[in-house]
């Protein structure tokens, strides 16, 4: 790579032969403008916003004199919403300003930024410009992001902006990229590159420094082993590598096409050769990732009954924080749905003015209107977003902003389940039913599909439908028999509602009855809530459309003591598991034992970043992130007697030995950015989750003061008895002798979705966002026992 060209790409790409002069949206952002920041009725103040020239940072004016940082990173933005799409804008702005408003939604727990432009045209420029920057930053592959990050750090270290680097600036740069070297080594590195003896590095000297810095011995060794054609890899050499090391079923034509698409050197490309730079780019593409790209789209059989799938599910979805005094918000529903959640919970209580409210009863959590939540669900249940298909261009910023990208549509078309915990009076229940029917329209399932009583509900047939889970006054057959039910009758309350009362009282109360309106009852079609008595009772009495809810302790007892019966129960019945009421901090239980017992709706507190949520997101990573994962056949076929706690020789026992070599890491983030000399001491932990016999954990030693390119070359071995239920989690931590290690990043995926051979493992933040330039380099192999 020519580093000076890279510097042009990053420092001057706006002006040097990029064709961006005509990009109105981008030029508008760079020029900046005044926007009204909206925080309340009384706090609406004008602030100047501008995209900085690195095109990765937004600067904004602030009234706080001593504020150190008036910027935020484009990488911190999750999305931009045009119009009055946030609770704040809906509450504090007038309907007439709809087209002037937009919101910047941040990743993690940072609050939304609600803004108002002076005109609809100006608002469109802000939204389209920001979306363009976000989209194309996301579109860079990992190698391009790595280059972007390194040069960005170089630019920050070049304090006087003279495109030269002094020894002092070099040391500052090394700390920026998370590596600590002593003065002797820094001086030696500097003098080795300062061939002109000018006391600064410039031009080719910076290029030499860059090459020394980014040299990766492991890539050199692998490439050297297969680069057997004039020092380069021919297409045949590449194919040998792919078949021998990567266990890939490529053809020679596939190898040639890869070279044509990704090789940066035109001379090598004409010879159908792959240079070392081209080989490195293989690992930044989906073909070189640990996650199998064939599992990225919806690839499973989606024509099975709903109870044959694990379903991504949320508990107390309305909460943004804890269960006692945290805020309730429509935003929580939007975030859960955007993460692939397909079952959301609504706790509904009588509100003033006859309007039902959603909040956590008997607590100080804030309240949100039921109708606003239903509107948010309508808008985001099957929301289609447009994202570019990566062209994986050979130049780091080739096609950046100014090329037309093909668009792909990303959304789950599979059904959303509304789990109602109803505490309302009959009158407000009728209003709830009215809101759901009028707002959700044809998406709401109000009658069984077909003209006769079904025996199962098929997932594929429920695409883009919304199902209501709750109490029903009669059997589903009544939907075909004129439904002459009383307008109002009493039913037992939900098990979870009863548990809330139980936690409030010293003695266990008798489960009370609630009045249920026929209008609300009739909307419960395929998910009628019933109480669980025993597996024998359920087998005899429970219909396929009836489902029970279990608090985590009850479910764990059943999973521990009656796992095989639980698995069989879940072959033709739905089960929902929810966290204990004592988890007032919105913590989560381990979902894996519940999945091992075949439970479909294992509801977690989506608002809480934690290992349990990592496991959930890893479980639902494949199959298009659609929120539905087909259970293994031995959990669907009643002929099998699967017991996760008692493994015997059977179809599910496909023992494998998993070999994982943790080779190195690249560009781990600094954790304490306020302390320039603070460098991470990373270690890697590999964890296996699944049936009890498969649970294991091993870790590398820590590497002192190197977050840029630490190397371990550590081999781990794991025995996997039931691969179809195993989940693999990689976690990187910053070692600390005096306290608990700090989290750096993680990546979790099903064992069956891993690719073998040399692979790159991307790293995610605690909230699930990608860390743009960071990753692990590993070798994966699994052998049959």
From TrEMBL:
Residue ranges of every copy of the C2 domain listed in the record: 636-765
Binding residues annotated for substrate, in chain numbering: 37-64, 469, 471, 549, 576
UniProt-annotated binding residues for Ca(2+) 5: 734-736
Cofactor note: Binds 3 Ca(2+) ions per subunit. Two of the Ca(2+) ions are bound to the C2 domain.
Main location: cytoplasm
Keyword line: Calcium, Cytoplasm, Glycoprotein, Hydrolase, Lipid degradation, Lipid metabolism, Membrane, Metal-binding, Repeat, Transducer
InterPro entries named in the record: C2_dom, C2_domain_sf, EF-hand-dom_pair, EF_Hand_1_Ca_BS, EF_hand_dom, PH-like_dom_sf, PH_domain, PI-PLC_fam
Catalytic activity line of the entry: a 1,2-diacyl-sn-glycero-3-phospho-(1D-myo-inositol-4,5-bisphosphate) + H2O = 1D-myo-inositol 1,4,5-trisphosphate + a 1,2-diacyl-sn-glycerol + H(+)
Ranges for domain PH: 28-135
Positions bound to Ca(2+) 4: 679, 681, 705
Residues with attached carbohydrate: 196
CDD domains registered for this protein in UniProt: C2_PLC_like, PH_PLC_delta, PI-PLCc_delta
Keyword field contains Transcription: no
Assigned GO CC terms: cytoplasm; plasma membrane
Compositionally biased intervals (Acidic residues): 486-497
E.C. designation(s): 3.1.4.11
All residue ranges annotated as the PI-PLC Y-box domain in the record: 520-636
Cellular localization per UniProt: Cytoplasm; Membrane
Domain of life assignment: Eukaryota
Cofactor: Ca(2+)
Name listed for the protein in its UniProt record: Phosphoinositide phospholipase C
Species in which this protein is naturally found: Pygocentrus nattereri (Red-bellied piranha)
């Amino acid at each position: 790579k020519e580093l000076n060209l890279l510097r042009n790409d990053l420092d001057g790409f706006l002006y040097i032969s990029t064709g961006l002069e005509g990009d109105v949206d981008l030029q508008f952002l760079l020029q900046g403008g005044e926007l009204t920041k909206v925080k309340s009725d009384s706090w609406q103040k004008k602030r100047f916003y501008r995209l900085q020239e690195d095109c990765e940072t937004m600067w904004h004016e602030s009234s706080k004199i001593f504020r150190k940082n008036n910027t935020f990173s484009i990488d911190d933005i999750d999305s931009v919403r045009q119009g009055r799409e946030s609770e704040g804008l809906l509450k504090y702005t007038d309907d007439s300003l709809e087209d002037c408003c937009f919101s910047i939604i941040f990743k993690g727990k940072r609050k939304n930024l609600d803004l108002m432009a002076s005109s609809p045209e100006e608002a469109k420029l802000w939204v389209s410009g920001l979306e363009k920057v976000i989209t194309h930053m996301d579109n860079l592959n990992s190698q391009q992001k790595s280059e972007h990050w390194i040069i960005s750090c170089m630019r920050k270290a070049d304090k006087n902006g003279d495109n030269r680097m002094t020894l002092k600036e070099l040391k500052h740069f090394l700390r920026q990229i998370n590596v600590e070297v002593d003065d002797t080594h820094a001086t030696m590195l500097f003098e080795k590159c300062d061939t002109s003896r000018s006391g600064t590095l410039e031009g080719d000297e910076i290029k030499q420094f860059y090459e020394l810095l980014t040299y990766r011995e492991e890539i050199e060794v692998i490439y050297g082993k297969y680069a057997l054609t004039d020092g380069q890899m021919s297409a045949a050499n590449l194919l040998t590598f792919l078949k021998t090391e990567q266990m890939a079923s490529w053809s020679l034509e596939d190898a040639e096409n890869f070279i044509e698409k990704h090789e940066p050197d035109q001379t090598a490309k004409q010879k159908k050769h792959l240079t070392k730079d081209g080989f490195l780019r293989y690992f930044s593409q989906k073909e070189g990732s640990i996650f199998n790209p064939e599992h990225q789209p919806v690839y499973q059989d989606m024509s099975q009954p709903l109870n044959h799938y694990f379903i991504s599910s949320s508990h107390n979805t309305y909460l943004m924080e804890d269960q006692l005094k945290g805020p309730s918000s429509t935003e929580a529903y939007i975030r859960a749905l955007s993460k692939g959640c397909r079952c959301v919970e609504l706790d509904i209580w009588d509100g003033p003015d006859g309007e039902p409210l959603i909040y956590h009863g008997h607590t100080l959590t804030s309240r949100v209107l039921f109708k606003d939540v239903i509107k948010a669900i309508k808008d985001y249940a099957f929301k289609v977003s447009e994202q570019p298909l990566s062209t994986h261009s050979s130049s780091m910023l080739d096609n950046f902003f100014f090329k037309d990208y093909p668009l792909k549509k990303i959304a789950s078309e599979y059904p959303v389940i509304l789990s109602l915990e109803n505490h309302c009076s009959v009158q407000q229940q009728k209003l709830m039913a009215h809101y759901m029917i009028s707002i959700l329209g044809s998406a709401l399932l109000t009658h069984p599909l077909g003209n006769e009583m079904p025996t199962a509900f098929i997932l594929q047939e429920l695409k883009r439908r919304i199902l209501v889970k709750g109490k029903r006054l009669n059997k589903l057959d009544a939907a075909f028999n004129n439904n002459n039910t009383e307008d109002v009758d009493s039913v037992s309350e939900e098990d979870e509602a009863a548990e809330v009362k139980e936690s409030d009282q010293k003695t266990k109360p008798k489960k009370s009855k609630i009045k249920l309106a026929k209008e609300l009852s009739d909307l419960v079609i395929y998910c009628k809530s019933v109480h669980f008595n025993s597996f024998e009772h359920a087998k005899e009495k429970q219909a396929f459309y009836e489902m029970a809810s279990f608090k985590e302790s009850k479910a764990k007892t059943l999973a521990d003591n009656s796992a095989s019966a639980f698995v069989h129960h879940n072959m033709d019945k739905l089960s929902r598991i929810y966290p204990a009421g004592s988890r007032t901090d919105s913590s989560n239980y381990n979902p894996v034992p519940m999945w091992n017992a075949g439970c479909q709706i294992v509801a977690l507190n989506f608002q809480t970043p934690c290992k349990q949520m990592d496991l959930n997101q890893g479980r639902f990573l494949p199959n298009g992130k659609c929120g539905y994962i087909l259970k293994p056949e031995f959990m669907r076929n009643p002929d099998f007697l699967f017991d996760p706690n008692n493994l015997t020789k059977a179809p599910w026992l496909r023992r494998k030995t998993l070999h994982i070599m943790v080779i190195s890491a690249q560009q781990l983030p600094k954790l304490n950015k306020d302390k320039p000399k603070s460098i991470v001491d990373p270690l890697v932990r590999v964890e296996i989750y699944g049936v009890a016999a498969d649970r294991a954990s091993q870790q590398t030693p820590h590497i002192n003061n190197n977050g840029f390119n630490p190397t371990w070359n550590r081999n781990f071995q794991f025995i996997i008895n039931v691969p179809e239920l195993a989940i693999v989690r990689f976690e990187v931590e910053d070692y600390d002798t005096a306290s608990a290690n700090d989290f750096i990043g993680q990546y979790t995926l099903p064992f069956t979705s891993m690719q073998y051979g040399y692979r790159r493992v991307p790293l995610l933040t605690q909230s699930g966002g990608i860390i743009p330039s960071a990753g692990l380099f590993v070798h994966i192999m699994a052998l049959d026992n």
